[in-house]
Amino acid sequence: MSGDAVGITGIGVTAPGGIGAKAFWELLMAGRSATRTITLFNPEGFRSRIAAECDFDPVAAGLTPREIRRMDRAAQFAVVSAREALADSGIEAGWPPPERRAVSLGSAVGCTMRLEQEYVVLSDGGRHWLVDHGYAVPRLYDYMAPSTLAAEVAWASAAEGPVALVSTGCTSGLDAVGRGVRLLQEGTADIVLAGATEAPISPITVACFDAIRATSPNNLEPGRASRPFDRDRDGFVLGEGAAVLVLERVASAVERGAHLYAEIAGFASRSNAFHMTGLRPDGREMAEAIRASLAEARKRPEEIDYINAHGSGTRQNDRHETAAFKRSFGARAYQVPVSSIKSMVGHSLGAIGSIEVAACALAIEHDMVPPTANLHTPDPECDLDYVPLTARRQPTRSVLSVGSGFGGFQSAMVLKAPAGA
Amino acid sequence: MTVRAMVTGLGVVAPAGVGAEAFWAAARAGHCALGPITRFDAAAYPVRLAGEVATFDAAAFVPGPVIPQTDRFTHLGLAAAAMALADARANPADLPEYGSAVVTGASSGGTEFGQHEIERLWREGPGSVGAYQSIAWFYAATTGQVSIRHKLRGPCGVLATEQAAGLDALGEARRMLRSGVRLVLAGGTDASLCPYGLVAQLSTGLLSAASDPSAAYLPFSPAAGGYVPGEGGAMMVIERADDAAARGIAPYGEIAGYAATFDPPPGSGRGPGLVRAAMLALRDADVPPSEIDVVFADAMGAPAWDSAEAAAISAVFGPHGVPVTAPKAGSGRSYAGGASLDVACALLSIRAGLIPPTPGGGRPDPRYAIDLVSRQPRKQRIRAALVLARGYGGFNAAVVVRAPSRPE
Amino acid sequence: MANFTFDDLSRILRDSAGLALDPGHDDTPLADLGYESLAVLEFASRVKKQYGVALPDEAVDVSHTPREILTTVNERLGLT
After folding, report:
1. Total structural domains within chain C
2. What pLDDT is stored for residue C2 in this prediction?
3. How far apart are CA B274 and CA B292, in angstroms?
4. What residue of C is the nearest CA neighbor of B66?
5. Measured between CB atoms, does B121 come within 8 Å of chain C?
6. Which residues constitute the domain of residue C59?
7. Taking Cα atoms as reference points, which of A204, A20, A38 lies closest to residue A110?
């Protein structure tokens, strides 16, 4: 698809290990893992009792009492990140006008925490199928409708153009940013608040991943449990958080003297149409998404300096993804550094794709590649350079970010350094 | 040359009927398919009516192994998708490997399935949640299952904008066609008639508490007292005009224009964005208001909302400037399925040269200055229809559906 | 406690997977009988609930046959 060049002029991140983009980047550069025993509820009795939680104080983050009362935790993350991104971008009230501001926000499971909390009350602990409406909070419907998350970001950014929630499972975060790029290329908006949010650390979500044994049961070593590409990996560690980017056309950023972190040069998604959770070992659909995004970006594999992997840490994903990189990059797959930041911030489902795009933009900004934490024992099936343990300084001008999700979604995005940078 | 997005197949699962023909027969007759909720005992709730898809046999449409692993909203979506593909006589296998896709609107996800699982969790403990909760409840479930069932390997999507999602899915489908995808299944379904789903809906204060189905959902009426919730939805096959022609398929119509806007925050003093969405969609279609022969209204059925929508319609078309109809008054408001049903109805109206009436609609409130088609269908050659949708929270979307051009 | 029979296996697989177990294929991998990974995980979840038996990760795989699953469950029930 042709169109104007689009770039990132603002970044806001709410992630485990530190609130704000700066703290996020520091965590990645230190190679620290923010996974721990779950504190958001009592995890006794669950198979996986660990998660990557945000130390988030809504008051300190600037939310008002009414906002805190009204908003599910996922909305709080999103709004705080949106405000940070807007401030970072230098976009002010006057321009662009509201009707030229759009929102494209991702989330896989919406307002799960509030929905579950309210359910427990209305059903009196699951005792009643016919829940008691007399106990319902006034905004219960806002939690049932995941679109509310996008509405909150729209209110926070004075957006009256197209606003939507993208909910393609674990690729929501990448797909929402990709959609934002298209809105700008089509001329429908002048800025897009694009990103994603998730606050899934709630009993029902932990239980559902327990049931399919997808999460790590390494409860005795929470800090080491997220170990993508490692021979001893045993599942992903659930995370939470948000990232929101301000996207705008490069020409407009240059005109107003805004700082550009990176351009988003290519985006593509495909579906494996095979199984809701299973992945074939050949990685062909992810490879096809990669090929298409590189083609749009007019980049060859040799020009990619870093691949930010999905790297969830399940046995099947890391194998599938390694195959996809080899299939699409050929011999270059063995040279290009690949890393998974899920090793540090966990897997926040719909949010992680946007958090990873933020990491890629910062990698380009700083010429630094984040490591894969906890990678101590190589797996013969995963034999690429996964940047174990230590961040690496290197010229980082073109980056590929990929994602894979339940439902068969496979997405890929190419970012590159702004021209003249 | 801009790619033109044509609808070549329709699959409908509506309270009024399963299948496009049954749906249309009920719509043109102004049939009211609202009735008491039967999916659970609603006696203790202030709202006891809904538009349920009463005679739906999942086993007739959904493979056996898929039934236990999906919620009803996905059963309905799979049925609608299969019917749409059959109606279009389309076989994705005939297309390039990544040339077909699916995009759905989502609203509540797998609500009833989820309520069962969460009840189990809290009643019996952590190990009692089943393996399918991880794939049945989330909003992407229907897109995922449809993609797998029909081997749609292109860029699949899910959009959540409440009642506007069905139109946003069409906008997305058209974008996909323009980027090279050859066939897109687009639409949405919802099924949130379980106790927790209903109680959540109650909290908006917009649901009608009336007990007589024929007088419960009266959009634009002076007696309007809220809407009745519904289940169901529609999926449609969207292809490029040249592909449809090459396959010898006569399209139902064209998705000629699309736009979406978002309302200013409450208290801003600026008006809602529905007018702008309508105007942008008309401009996108290059269709002036004078060539729109019917408006399918969002029809919230609550006074402030009806007033705002009527004002928007008058702003675009002038007072009494265009026939307006709301067939959903006879089947309920189906959230992610609702706008898709409206588009299906618009396409069938174009084919029949007939505007279906607003069920239960007597004379609209004269202050609204709208020409509401009610009591009887109205014969009308329809060159183009405007479909409006508003999603709770401030989402607006508009689609211009144009009659297929006459064959050369 | 009674042991876990082929009928029990069949019933729970049918409830889990929406697919009845074809008799006479005791040594055919579940994958070849039409069961996919989530169905087997659902089966394991129901077996745990109904019989108190926890099946280890290695046992919960579509490569196993009905006979193997039957043996594993009964071993864990304390009977052979």
Report:
1. 1
2. 66
3. 16
4. C18
5. no
6. 6-77
7. A204
> Does residue C60 belong to the interface with chain A, where contact is any CB pair within 8 Å?
yes
pTM score, whole prediction:
0.98
Respond yes or no on whether the N-terminal peptide bond of residue A96 is cis (omega within 30° of 0).
yes
State whether B68 and C36 contact (CB < 8 Å). no
- The CATH code for residues A6-111+146-416 is 3.40.47.10
Each residue's pLDDT tens digit, A195-214: 999 999 999 999 999 999 99
Q: At what angle do helices A112-122 and B195-202 cross, to 10 degrees?
A: 100
Q: How far is residue C21's CA from residue B64's CA, in Å, rounded to a whole number?
A: 13
What stretches in chain B show pLDDT beneath 70? 1, 361, 406-408
pLDDT score at A93: 85
Q: How far is residue B282's CA from residue B315's CA, in Å, rounded to a whole number?
A: 13
Structural contact between residues B73 and B142, judged by C-beta atoms closer than 8 angstroms: yes
Domain boundaries, chain A: 6-111+146-416
> How confident is the model over A72-119, as pLDDT tens digits?
999 999 999 999 999 999 998 889 999 999 999 999 999 999 999 999
Contacts of A278 in chain C (CB under 8 A): 36-37
Which residues of A are part of the catalytic machinery? 170, 310, 347
Determine whether the interchain pair C41/B68 forms a contact, defined as Cβ–Cβ distance below 8 Å: no
Is residue C1 one of the residues assigned to a domain?
Answer: no
Cα-Cα end-to-end distance for chain C: 13
Question: What CATH number does the domain containing C20 carry?
Answer: 1.10.1200.10
Q: What residue in A sits closest to B143 (Cα-Cα)?
A: A407
ipTM above 0.95, yes or no: yes
Residues of C in contact with B71 (CB under 8 A): none
What is the nearest CA distance from C45 to chain A, expressed in angstroms? 7
